[in-house]
Amino acid sequence: MNNGLVGKTALITGAGSGIGRATALLFAERGARVVVLDVNRESSEDVVDEIRQKGGTGLAVTADVGNEAAMKQAVADTISSFGTLDVLVNNAAVQIMGPLHEFTEAQFDQIISVNMKGVFFGCKYTLPVMMKQKAGVVLSVSSVLGLVGDPDLGIYGATKGAVIALTKSLAVAYGPYGIRVNCVCPGDVNTPLVKQFFDFQPDPEEAKAQVYRHYPLRRIAEPKEVATTLGFLASEDASFISGSHLFVDGGLSAEVY
Ligand SMILES: NC(=O)c1ccc[n+]([C@@H]2O[C@H](COP(=O)([O-])OP(=O)(O)OC[C@H]3O[C@@H](n4cnc5c(N)ncnc54)[C@H](O)[C@@H]3O)[C@@H](O)[C@H]2O)c1
């Protein structure tokens, strides 16, 4: 296994919490210099403190992924601090639940801004750096809901489906530059985002038990299990994997009944 990321620079969006946080800590542990980007300044600084306490190298960047100027600046700050940008992880997303006919235009715009424009801006400013380097890895965190339906998460699922489609097109367009592009499709992961989902249900504990029963492995994922998958895809061990969407869902999407 060559799962080391020694000497690599990784920019991870939404890295102040959940999957992004676990990924930032894992990448730093494996030797990467990690840019911890989040809209929440305090949480990204906490993650960088934790990275440094463990002997790693990190930089906290406060930015809204849906803001083009902020994302352009974040990439520029990464280069001026570390000289390269080898791995981008588009992880930041928001989830707004509810039936589509009750969705407001403002909610629609918010979810599109973070989950889709954020991925667009991350890629737009990172790819030219990687093209010059003739190497790089772009990873995005999609979801099983990019491929299957949930009654209360139609717009969220649509953004995740878009991320899968974009992954395939970018892999085709930028492969000739030595850039690999992949995404992961987690099922439920034990993060604040999922807690929000359970809290939204009339009986959160029963909802949790019901969800666990759907999984062949009879549990949901821990954030670190998605982080290790991203770590694999970022590493040389995945040197011929590009244009893939990889399920990290304990077999959930494999089952019909
Ligand atoms: N948790 C799950 O069950 C699950 C399942 C499938 C996919 N995902 C995906 O995994 C990714 C991470 O989810 P999570 O559960 O760790 O979420 P989370 O809510 O724990 O963390 C998301 C982070 O993104 C940050 N963020 C939100 N809006 C932002 C913005 N505009 N700019 C920059 N940062 C912003 C938040 O501050 C937060 O730190 C998301 O793409 C989500 O859609 C999660």
From TrEMBL:
<dbReference type="InterPro" id="IPR002347">
    <property type="entry name" value="SDR_fam"/>
</dbReference>
<dbReference type="Pfam" id="PF13561">
    <property type="entry name" value="adh_short_C2"/>
</dbReference>
<protein>
    <submittedName>
        <fullName>NAD(P)-dependent dehydrogenase (Short-subunit alcohol dehydrogenase family)</fullName>
    </submittedName>
</protein>
<dbReference type="InterPro" id="IPR020904">
    <property type="entry name" value="Sc_DH/Rdtase_CS"/>
</dbReference>
<keyword id="KW-0560">Oxidoreductase</keyword>
<dbReference type="InterPro" id="IPR057326">
    <property type="entry name" value="KR_dom"/>
</dbReference>
<feature type="domain" description="Ketoreductase">
    <location>
        <begin position="8"/>
        <end position="190"/>
    </location>
</feature>
<dbReference type="InterPro" id="IPR036291">
    <property type="entry name" value="NAD(P)-bd_dom_sf"/>
</dbReference>
<comment type="similarity">
    <text>Belongs to the short-chain dehydrogenases/reductases (SDR) family.</text>
</comment>
<keyword id="KW-0520">NAD</keyword>
